[in-house]
């Protein structure tokens, strides 16, 4: 019965337009009333407690770093560098989009911002070169959603705190699967665009490439800083985030000189507002999570899934289907916050590796960003590229299929996430990693 | 006018919080790094920085929640209300606002009732009474409460604008380009 | 007369921790006393929040029980800082006699003013220093090590005084910070170290026993006052019954865990009494620094009782 109360109040409140954060509080109030433990102090205590967490500071810092880089002119240099490498291939701007998406994913955690930047620069070029625009828009959207999977990632931070899983390990665990998503896009693009009659760029010389690299070196250096900090223990994720922000500020202001001091206030305010909106959601989710735990909802759900308990793989499969279904209709952060307290007890009980689950969970939620009806990245690409929503939805299909294939491939072969993670944690050698992945 | 002044002030407070957080966490981390290389300044780190930046973050969040609410920028699901027209849409907005008001009232009462236990809980490093942290519940509940009461009042007196209704249904892009709570 | 009551208990420790044995014993006792009317339902692993936050829920009367170490609570009851003082309690038998005796009662009597009722003292255990750099056999070996400590002023002071670079850090990221060598070491109980698999990222363990950490078994005072006399007595007595089982389990687990972490490859060194005496001397100022906060009478009461035992 508590499950029904939970679902009806949460979905009901959201459906009539109550903001998600308040819907979570409404749902908490209903659960308290039903369980006979109504007390206003629970709301006040849990709400503030939800935001009082040092690890979550990484979120505003990475957001700030992203905002500073957008204002500092790093995106166009990344794209210029990608063009110098792969622009001359058939369908080259598609590969440029994928390549730039991966680099930008390693700089920021925002799929929406990356997509907007990519679409803003590339779609006009693709139009001029006679590309199929809905399909190109679909490619850019699905390239953009790599951002939350490759570190840094706000999704991993929120999940890591809500599930009490190490953010450092989630960051390291996301790298390889994020690259797999990019590879799947390369194959899908090569296949669907093989007969397109499009112009290609002239092949650039190595001198030209070196120049493009030099222009973008400060942007390209940032992933190295973030990953180096985390991989080699130079800093915790929160400190790595603050280093990234200060670095982006420095590069934007003093190296590229595109960031003017008077713009700083606006950039800080934007990052502050976004992080306040997200953190308020995170805080509100702690109220309902507290009551979900007390009401034993995970156990109730767990008993529904009892048949799958013997097979972690099957359980994983079922959970991923659930996340896809929820992700069609709900935004990224709410999905993470609502499902984490429900699924984590099951994950732990069945004995699924927590980091592995986290990586696939976030990848799945990222894919939710391009599934209608609620897919913010589709909206972004549609408005920036000026392509009707319906056309983008059609264009994204092959890439959605490719990335979903990666997701379910990883459900079948957990070692493809865990072995690279253990390699990056210096637990196993490169040879051992390959042996585990290919089963010899 | 007054409303604008209040919001501008709150925005400045948010920016100040974020800037202070960046400065403190960066300085602390940098000092710790330097002490690794034998250069120990300020004892190789500022111990209050962790706690103080956490407290500022709480303020950033809960003052920010009011600012975001002032622009109707909290993340919502507009799929259904976007399909409603006329009175049905007004009814949904009214009900939704009442529910938010109930939440604000509960938050205010809860913060009020538990103020004593936070007043005598001292933050371990700064020695600051935790009511300075948990008191943020007052700002949020009163701030968002007032904003929503305004809209309820306009509905009841029939002064609600078409623009507001469309904003509620997610049909207008936010004039300030607010990303509506997306980190992804 | 006993009424039907499910007592919700929160604790940050995970499944398999000796606290579980205490809760089980307490439940058997309660079932017996109340004819099955009362029972404790444990939420472990911080499922209901951190120990400090859960304790705040007790004070507001929104949760019944919490089993917590004293260190997170010094902001509420500064008197509890006495248990953070380095090298106060030397042996398990000293701990039992001190906590079950006059001094233990003195501390418990100070808690109702904070809306908390202490039912019993359970055991977290002696805390020891582990690190990944080199073996620590003397106070000099500690110099310059980056050691994670809890966000607690006395611990910070102690480890700074010992010459380490004391880093306050939230619990969640400690393992990864140790793994990536962002920090060199941490301090922990032996069962705690074993349960969190710290042996995977820590090579050296020194049995410094620099602090004995008791668990408080706290009940919400607003809710305790709503129980009738019979129920109150049952809860108190059964928490004591739980204490016996819990301490026994804790000590067994400390021995088993020590054996296990050695098997896992940790190098364990026992500090000589001379070295302990030296460390005790080095940290003597810590007692002075925090005397006014904890209360001189409290520190004196503890040291006097312990001195009597040691004669
Ligand atoms: Na990213
Ligand atoms: Na979706």
TrEMBL record, chain A:
InterPro entries: DctM (IPR010656), TRAP_DctM (IPR004681). It is a multi-pass membrane protein. One of its GO terms (cellular component) is plasma membrane. The keyword Cell membrane applies. It is found in: Cell inner membrane. The chain crosses the membrane at residues 6-35, 56-75, 95-125, 137-163, 169-192, 212-234, 240-256, 317-343, 355-376, 396-418. Keywords: Cell inner membrane, Cell membrane, Membrane, Transmembrane, Transmembrane helix, Transport. GO terms for molecular function: transmembrane transporter activity. Residues 7-416 form the TRAP C4-dicarboxylate transport system permease DctM subunit domain. Belongs to the TRAP transporter large permease family. Part of the tripartite ATP-independent periplasmic (TRAP) transport system. The complex comprises the extracytoplasmic solute receptor protein and the two transmembrane proteins. This is TRAP transporter large permease protein. It comes from Phyllobacterium bourgognense. The lineage of its organism: Bacteria, Pseudomonadati, Pseudomonadota, Alphaproteobacteria, Hyphomicrobiales.
TrEMBL record, chain B:
Its main location: membrane. InterPro entries: DctQ, TRAP_DctQ. The chain crosses the membrane at residues 12-31, 51-69, 90-111, 131-153. Coiled coil: none annotated. One of its GO terms (biological process) is C4-dicarboxylate transport. It is found in: Cell inner membrane. It is a multi-pass membrane protein. Residues 41-157 form the Tripartite ATP-independent periplasmic transporters DctQ component domain. One of its GO terms (cellular component) is plasma membrane. GO terms for molecular function: transmembrane transporter activity. Keywords: Cell inner membrane, Cell membrane, Membrane, Transmembrane, Transmembrane helix, Transport. It comes from the Bacteria. PANTHER family: 2,3-DIKETO-L-GULONATE TRAP TRANSPORTER SMALL PERMEASE PROTEIN YIAM. Part of the tripartite ATP-independent periplasmic (TRAP) transport system. Belongs to the TRAP transporter small permease family. The complex comprises the extracytoplasmic solute receptor protein and the two transmembrane proteins. This is TRAP transporter small permease protein. It comes from Phyllobacterium bourgognense. The lineage of its organism: Bacteria, Pseudomonadati, Pseudomonadota, Alphaproteobacteria, Hyphomicrobiales.
């Amino acid at each position: 019965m508590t499950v029904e109360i939970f679902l009806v109040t949460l979905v009901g409140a959201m459906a009539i337009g109550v903001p998600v954060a308040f819907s979570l509080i409404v749902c908490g109030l209903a659960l308290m009333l039903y369980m006979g433990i109504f007390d206003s102090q629970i709301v006040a205590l849990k709400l503030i407690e939800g935001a009082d967490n040092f690890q979550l500071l990484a979120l505003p810092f990475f957001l700030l770093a992203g905002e500073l880089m957008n204002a500092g002119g790093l995106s166009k240099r990344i794209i210029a560098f990608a063009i110098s490498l792969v622009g001359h291939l058939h369908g080259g701007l598609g590969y440029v989009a994928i390549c730039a998406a991966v680099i930008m994913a390693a700089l920021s955690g925002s799929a929406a911002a990356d997509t907007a930047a990519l679409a803003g620069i590339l779609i006009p070029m693709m139009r001029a070169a006679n590309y199929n625009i809905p399909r190109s828009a679909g490619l850019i959207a699905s390239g953009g959603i790599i951002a939350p999977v490759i570190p840094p990632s706000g999704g991993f931070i929120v999940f890591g705190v809500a599930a009490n899983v190490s953010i450092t390990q989630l960051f390291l665990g996301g790298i390889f699967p994020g690259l797999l998503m990019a590879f799947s896009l390369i194959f899908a693009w090569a296949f669907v665009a093989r007969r397109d009659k499009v112009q290609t760029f002239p092949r650039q010389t190595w001198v030209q490439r070196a120049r493009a690299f030099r222009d973008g070196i400060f942007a390209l250096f940032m992933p190295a800083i973030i990953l180096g900090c985390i991989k080699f223990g130079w800093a915790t994720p929160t400190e790595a985030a603050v280093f990234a922000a200060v670095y982006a500020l420095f590069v934007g202001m003093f190296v590229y000189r595109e960031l003017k001091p008077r713009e700083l206030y606006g950039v800080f305010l934007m990052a502050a507002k976004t992080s306040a909106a997200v953190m308020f959601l995170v805080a509100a989710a702690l109220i309902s999570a507290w009551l979900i735990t007390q009401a034993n909802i995970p156990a109730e759900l767990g008993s529904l899934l009892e048949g799958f308990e013997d097979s972690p793989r099957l359980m994983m499969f079922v959970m991923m289907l659930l996340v896809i279904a929820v992700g069609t209709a709900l935004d990224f952060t709410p999905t993470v916050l609502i499902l984490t307290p429900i699924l984590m007890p099951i994950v732990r009980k069945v004995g699924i590796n927590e980091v592995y689950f986290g990586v696939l969970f976030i990848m799945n939620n990222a894919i939710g960003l391009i599934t209608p009806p609620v897919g913010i990245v589709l909206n972004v690409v549609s408005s920036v590229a000026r392509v009707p929503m319906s056309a983008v939805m059609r264009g994204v299909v092959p890439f959605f299929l490719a990335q979903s294939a990666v997701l379910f491939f990883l459900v079948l072969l957990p070692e493809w996430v865990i072995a690279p993670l253990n390699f990056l944690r210096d637990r196993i050698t490169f040879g051992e990693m390959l042996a585990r992945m290919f089963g010899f | 006018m007054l409303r604008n002044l209040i919001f501008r002030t709150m925005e400045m407070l948010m920016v100040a919080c974020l800037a202070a957080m960046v400065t403190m966490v960066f300085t602390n981390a940098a000092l710790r790094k330097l002490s690794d290389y034998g250069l120990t300044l300020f004892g190789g780190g500022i111990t209050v920085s962790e706690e103080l930046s956490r407290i500022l973050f709480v303020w950033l969040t809960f003052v920010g929640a009011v600012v975001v609410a002032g622009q109707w920028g909290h993340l919502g699901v507009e799929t259904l209300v976007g399909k409603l027209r006329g009175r049905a849409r007004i009814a949904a907005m009214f009900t939704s606002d009442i529910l938010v008001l109930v939440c604000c009232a509960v938050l205010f009462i809860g913060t009020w009732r538990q103020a004593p236990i936070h007043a005598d809980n001292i933050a371990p490093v700064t020695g600051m009474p935790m009511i300075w942290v948990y008191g943020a519940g007052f700002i949020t509940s009163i701030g968002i409460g007032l904003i929503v009461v305004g809209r309820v009042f306009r509905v009841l007196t029939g002064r609600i604008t078409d623009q507001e209704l469309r904003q509620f249904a997610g049909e207008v892009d936010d004039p300030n380009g607010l990303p509506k709570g997306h980190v992804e | 007369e006993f009424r039907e009551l499910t007592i919700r208990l929160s604790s940050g420790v995970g499944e398999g921790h000796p606290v579980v044995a205490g809760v089980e014993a307490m439940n058997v006792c309660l079932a017996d006393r109340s004819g099955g009317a009362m029972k404790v339902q444990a939420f472990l692993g911080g499922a209901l929040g951190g120990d400090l936050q859960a304790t705040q829920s007790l004070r507001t009367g929104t949760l019944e029980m919490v089993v917590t170490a004293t260190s997170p609570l010094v902001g509420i009851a500064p008197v509890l800082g006495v248990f953070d003082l380095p090298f106060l309690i030397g042996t398990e038998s000293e701990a039992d006699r001190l906590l079950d005796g006059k001094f233990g009662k003195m501390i418990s009597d100070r808690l109702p003013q904070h809306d908390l009722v202490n039912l019993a003292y359970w055991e977290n255990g002696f805390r020891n220093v582990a690190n990944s750099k080199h073996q620590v056999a003397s106070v000099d070996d500690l110099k310059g090590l980056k050691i994670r400590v809890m966000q607690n002023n006395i611990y910070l002071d102690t480890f700074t005084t010992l010459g380490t670079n004391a880093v306050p850090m939230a619990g969640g990221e400690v393992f990864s910070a140790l793994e990536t060598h962002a920090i060199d070491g941490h301090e922990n109980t032996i069962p705690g170290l074993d349960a969190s698999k710290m042996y995977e990222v820590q090579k050296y363990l020194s049995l410094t026993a620099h602090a004995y950490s008791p668990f408080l078994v706290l009940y919400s005072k607003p809710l305790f006052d709503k129980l009738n006399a019979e129920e109150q007595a049952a809860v108190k007595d059964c928490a004591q019954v739980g204490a016996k089982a819990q301490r026994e389990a804790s000590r067994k687990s400390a021995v088993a865990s020590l054996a296990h972490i050695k098997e896992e490859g940790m190098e364990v060194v026992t500090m000589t009494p001379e070295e302990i005496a030296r460390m005790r001397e080095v940290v003597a100022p810590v007692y002075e620094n925090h005397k006014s906060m904890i209360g001189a009478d409290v520190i004196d009461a503890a040291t006097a009782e312990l001195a009597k035992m040691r004669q």
